[in-house]
Amino acid sequence: DAGAHVVVPLPSLAAEQRVVREALGHGVLLDGLARHHDGRPSWHGVGLGYTACTRPELLAVLPSVVRLLVAATAGG
């Protein structure tokens, strides 16, 4: 249940934090990349782990996650 993930880059730390916060409001825990840097982050985004989820769980949350990511990358 570990190791399968995708990294989605985002344009700024603010966008990363917003996506993580808003996803949590939808019951989805995303991992922001900033916390994995030693010092000032050089790039931003989220890690989406998916192997511990069932197919129905993924189908239920992916539309919300996609909307948040599209809005963040479009500057919204």
Q: End-to-end distance, in Å?
A: 33 Å
Strand order of the largest sheet: 1-3-2
Overall geometry: globular
Got a strand count?
A: 3
Question: DSSP strand (E) fraction?
Answer: 15-25%
Stretches with pLDDT under 50, minimum 5 residues: none
Instruction: Please state the CA-atom Rg, rounded to the nearest Å.
Output: 12 Å
Would you spell out the secondary-structure blueprint of this structure?
Elements: E1 5-10, H1 13-25, E2 31-32, E3 44-49, H2 55-73
Antiparallel strand pairs: 1-3, 2-3
Helix pairs in contact: 1-2
Summary of the model, kept short:
This protein is of the alpha+beta class and 76 residues long. It contains two helices and three strands.
Plain-language structure description:
The chain is an alpha+beta fold. The chain has 2 helices and 3 strands; from the N terminus they run βαββα. The chain has a 3-stranded antiparallel sheet with strand order 1-3-2, with helices on one face. The chain is globular, with a radius of gyration of 12 Å.
Main attributes of the structure:
76 residues, alpha+beta, three-stranded antiparallel beta sheet, globular
